[in-house]
């Protein structure tokens, strides 16, 4: 069995190890460099006001192109179910003889936002110049009062 002997000649090392501190500071610097540009991308936009009755009259026409997205993620062109990949080609086929490239879109309130955006991308890929988003008319009795 060995005897532990304290060597009085050796001094305690009191130097600060700065390597972990530099690593943490570099990670924080990178995080702030990535996040800072994202904070400045907020743009305030005043949206145009439109008369909903005029839009609904155009959407109710017999030859209007209407795309619908259900809450379970299915996409319909008129009354026919289509896939997102076929949506652009089928819309462009319906709009080839029309002068106004206008499409109307209905989406369920609980529809997945990603599915709705995929449908919008499919509509835009068909060369549509105007996309109308259809909503239900709010009851005036149940509407909240603005102060």
UniProtKB/TrEMBL annotation:
Keyword set, alphabetical order: Cell membrane, Membrane, Protein transport, Transmembrane, Transmembrane helix, Transport
InterPro entries, alphabetized: ExbD
Xref: Gene3D superfamilies: 3.30.420.270
Compartments, record wording: Cell membrane
TM stretches of this protein: 21-39
MF-aspect GO terms: transmembrane transporter activity
Pfam family, one: ExbD
A single BP term in Gene Ontology: protein transport
GO cellular component, one term: plasma membrane
Membrane-protein topology: Single-pass membrane protein; Single-pass type II membrane protein
Coiled-coil region: none
UniProt record similarity statement: Belongs to the ExbD/TolR family.
Name of the protein in its database record: Outer membrane transport energization protein ExbD
Species of the source: Edaphobacter aggregans
């Amino acid at each position: 069995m060995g005897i532990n002997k304290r060597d009085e000649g050796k001094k305690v090392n009191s130097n600060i190890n700065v390597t972990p501190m530099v690593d943490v500071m570099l990670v924080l610097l990178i995080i702030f460099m990535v996040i800072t540009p994202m904070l400045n991308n907020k743009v305030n936009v005043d949206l145009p006001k439109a008369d909903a009755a005029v839009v609904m009259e155009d959407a109710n026409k017999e030859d209007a192109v209407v795309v619908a997205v259900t809450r379970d993620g299915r996409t319909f062109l008129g009354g026919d179910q289509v896939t997102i990949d076929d949506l652009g080609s089928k819309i462009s086929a319906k709009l080839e003889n029309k002068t106004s490239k206008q499409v109307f879109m209905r989406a369920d309130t609980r529809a997945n936002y990603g599915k709705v955006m995929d449908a919008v991308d499919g509509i835009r890929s068909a060369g549509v110049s105007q996309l109308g988003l259809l909503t239900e008319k709010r009851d005036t009795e149940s509407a909240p009062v603005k102060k």
